[in-house]
Specification:
2 domains; 56% helix; mainly alpha; single chain
Length: 91
């Protein structure tokens, strides 16, 4: 396979943030994520959707309460094993 190098000018901040995002998504490197995108693009399989997810104020309050409960250990049930878990789940 013949190889070539693609150079893409960008700010250092963009590169650093893109690298962090790629690693957090399970890619071994930013280069690997770019190769995947280019492969999908070449096969006309790339789908792009840009959207912003927002929660309703009620959902936001509910999730904040859940996080607070987890952090304080409130409303948390601990089990010894799967059998104990199922017993507590059914009770």
């Amino acid at each position: 396979m013949s190889r070539t190098i693609l150079q893409v000018p960008m700010s250092k901040d963009l590169k650093v943030e893109a690298e962090k995002a790629a690693l957090s998504m399970g890619f071994s490197s930013l280069q690997e994520s770019v190769r995947l995108i280019l492969t999908k693009l070449a096969k006309k399989e790339l789908k792009v959707a840009i959207y912003e997810e927002t929660l309703s104020p009620e959902a936001e309050a509910r999730y904040e309460k859940i996080i607070k409960d987890i952090e304080t250990g409130k409303n948390i049930v601990k089990t010894k094993d799967a059998k104990d878990f199922l017993k507590k789940l059914r009770s």
